[in-house]
Amino acid sequence: MAQYQLPPQSFTPDVTTPPKGTLLAKYKGAPVTSVRTPALFIDQAVFKRNCARMHSSVKAWGASFRAHVKTHKTVEGVRLQLQSGAGTTTAVVVSTIMEAWEIVRGGANLSHIFQILYGLPVAPSKLADLAKLEHAMQTVNPNACLRLMIDNIYQVRALESYGEKVWSTFVKVDHGGHRAGLPVGSDALRELVTTMIESPSVHIHGFYCHAGDSYASTTLHQASSFLTVEMHAVDAAATMALSILEARPEINSSKYKKPFVLSVGSTPTAHTTHLVSSPADALAQEFTSGGVLEIHAGNYPVCDLQQLHTGLIGLGDVAHRVLASVISVYPARGEGGVDEAMCDAGGIAMSRDTGPSGGFGDVVPWVTSSGESGVQGNYGMLEDGSVKCDWRLGRCSQEHGILTRSKTNPQASSSPLLTPGEHIWIIGQHACLTLAAYPWYYIVDSDAPGGLETVMDVWVPWKGW
């Protein structure tokens, strides 16, 4: 067993999150194994390729794209989502007002962001902040527009009570997953849409659906089926709205001159655009409402074990890893006499999300065409979409995790025992929650000098709501 050696330099704790410039001065050019663990790393080369691939696929569909920024919450990541060598987008969706404000304050090329969608059904307590936000957007770009999400008449009445302002909105539609929104074909949805059409404070920009249940997909066929359901749902809702407008020609002529935007997507269903040649192939018919298709997604630049399980991406498409340190080893302690070990990445560092592949994360080398970094071992993809690896983060406490032999790899029990002090790379189950744990991300670039061994940038995410 190797003798553990202390790092050559003592560590000075960062009591608060330092500004980016301070972090770059400290970490840029440093070996990845010199940083304090647990630490979150992103391969910028993979992040860029994932963004370009999405732009290319959506463009081939003839659709527009709306990038969700909640996974990483950084100016740098937003810029890559907005502009790539394969295309651009002018629209984003945020989960928090903080994200929207930081896009404006951080100057993430706002000059060509025409639309920010606040992606939660709006709470009345947030209206004053949202009005200020839109004013700030329009001081940078007079054509910029903030859009809201509506799925309840209560929210419409709150908008009416705010004042004479007209709010641009999406109607959130429930395709059957019961995540948010009102069911297609329901009396409640018809009543809501009628109220919105009649309201002087609301303009319906379009209809929005998110198939969160598509994350259970394990094949292209399953994910494509969820996309079809999403598309049918928003099309049906828009068709219903048109029927209501037909009876109100005075409203139709004054407020609704453009087709409704039909916004669909989750990362699994958006990934099907890479593999399905056109929306007609997915929908099997044209939109009866004449609506304009928009695709939205957010996890796709980073990806995780959940996305791997869908079978729509490969191991090389996962842009993040958590760097952790092995603390201790326990030979033959596990069930059936198998080895176990402990690392310093627990529930706070990885989240407590599990997935179809099991466990809280997989220990997987970071291998690219230009080199490799991290522990070596037997890895790859299995038919069920899980990662073939030697070790898995099988149990989690708050600040530490228990590494167990992988049950999906028959050869795992014969692989070498981990060594205290050794660094390991872990892919998390759910990147959005894993990234939320970290005050900053270390950026490496497998296409640049230094590859996966050297820190080349630091991204500081936005915190708060």
Indicate the low-confidence ranges by residue numbers: 1-11, 368-379
Tell me how many strands there are.
24
CATH architecture descriptor text of the largest domain: Alpha-Beta Barrel
Fraction of helical residues: 25-40%
CATH class of the largest domain: Alpha Beta
| CATH homologous group name of the largest domain | Alanine racemase
Looking at the structure, the CATH topology of the largest domain is: TIM Barrel
Structural class: alpha/beta
Terminal residue distance? 47 Å
Radius of gyration: 24 Å
Total domains: 2
Percent of sequence in beta strands: 15-25%
Number of helices: 14
Coarse shape: globular
Largest sheet: 8 strands, parallel, barrel
Strand order in the sheet with the most strands: 2-5-6-7-8-10-11-12
What is the typical, i.e. mean, pLDDT? 86
Question: Care to describe what's here?
Answer:
The structure is a single chain. With 465 residues, the protein is α/β, with parallel strands linked by helices. It has two domains: 20-43 and 305-459, Lyase, Ornithine Decarboxylase, Chain A, domain 1; 44-297, Alpha-Beta Barrel (TIM Barrel), CATH 3.20.20.10. The protein has 14 helices and 24 strands. The strands form five sheets. It has an eight-stranded parallel barrel, surrounded by seven helices. α7 crosses α8 (220-246). 47% of the residues are buried.
